[in-house]
Amino acid sequence: MPETIKIAYLYEDLMNTYGDSGDVKILAFLLKEQGYDTQVDNISLGDNFNTFDYDFVFWGGGQDFEQSVVAKDLVRHKDTIDKYINANKPMLCICGGYQFLGAYYETSGGETIKGLDILPFHTIFKADSRMIGDTEYETEWGKVRAFENHSGRTYFDDKTMLKPFGKMIEGYGNNPEEGNEGMRYKNTIGSYSHGPILKNENVARAIADKIVISHKERMAATAK
Ligand code: GLN
């Protein structure tokens, strides 16, 4: 019997813009190659969950309206997500999901949506441009090509703790000024890349390997 890798997809029904749910499908395919089945649980409004029941947590992008709905629900999960991230467990957050790990997101409509405030960054809106188009950037795992579409501009409040996920070659990434894409902290990645990002096999394989390690750790912990 193949072992089952468990993935929590946060608010899958509300946050899955521009092909983001494809990230989870690509991971399931790569994990199958390594001999694992995959179970994906949609953790949505009102659901309780413990991150440590999972090997990987995924969070996709969302429109501002859906983000304002999710923001009211997600505070309940702050503690379990914080502990999971700080325990070096793997997590991938795209666009709106990425913004939610920070302190807040100011929308184009003038609303300030509170984030989980787990990591030291914030996201603001400026009227001059929406960041939309193809992106290309260099990461620790090689080049990534993707697509971005966001009005939020993300800035790190602690540049020692957080590292950019990539250096822009084409497109905006976090904001128009800094030439950085996304965020790395321990085994958590935040990124503005849709398309989905994991069509970039180099990144997908690196994350799949982290998920297998995380699964083995969880199995060892439950066996005790
Ligand atoms: N609504 C957010 C923004 O415009 C995130 C967009 C997204 O997740 N695609 O910045």
Automatic annotation (TrEMBL):
InterPro entries associated with the record: Class_I_gatase-like, CobQ_GATase1, GATase_3, Lipid_II_synth_GatD
Reactions this protein catalyses: beta-D-GlcNAc-(1->4)-Mur2Ac(oyl-L-Ala-gamma-D-Glu-L-Lys-D-Ala-D-Ala)-di-trans,octa-cis-undecaprenyl diphosphate + L-glutamine + ATP + H2O = beta-D-GlcNAc-(1->4)-Mur2Ac(oyl-L-Ala-D-isoglutaminyl-L-Lys-D-Ala-D-Ala)-di-trans,octa-cis-undecaprenyl diphosphate + L-glutamate + ADP + phosphate + H(+); L-glutamine + H2O = L-glutamate + NH4(+)
Pfam families: GATase_3
CDD domains on file: GATase1_CobQ
GO molecular function terms listed in the Swiss-Prot or TrEMBL record: carbon-nitrogen ligase activity on lipid II; glutaminase activity
Transmembrane region(s): none
Endpoints of the signal sequence: none
Domain CobB/CobQ-like glutamine amidotransferase: residue ranges: 6-200
Pathway: Cell wall biogenesis; peptidoglycan biosynthesis
BP term (GO), one: regulation of cell shape
Catalytic site: 95, 194
Record keywords: Cell shape, Cell wall biogenesis/degradation, Glutamine amidotransferase, Hydrolase, Ligase, Peptidoglycan synthesis
Binding site for substrate: 130
EC number of this enzyme: 6.3.5.13, 3.5.1.2
Similarity comment text for this entry: Belongs to the CobB/CobQ family. GatD subfamily.
Function: The lipid II isoglutaminyl synthase complex catalyzes the formation of alpha-D-isoglutamine in the cell wall lipid II stem peptide. The GatD subunit catalyzes the hydrolysis of glutamine to glutamate and ammonia. The resulting ammonia molecule is channeled to the active site of MurT.
Cross-referenced HAMAP family: Lipid_II_synth_GatD
Subunit structure: Forms a heterodimer with MurT.
Name listed for the protein in its UniProt record: Lipid II isoglutaminyl synthase (glutamine-hydrolyzing) subunit GatD
Gene: gatD
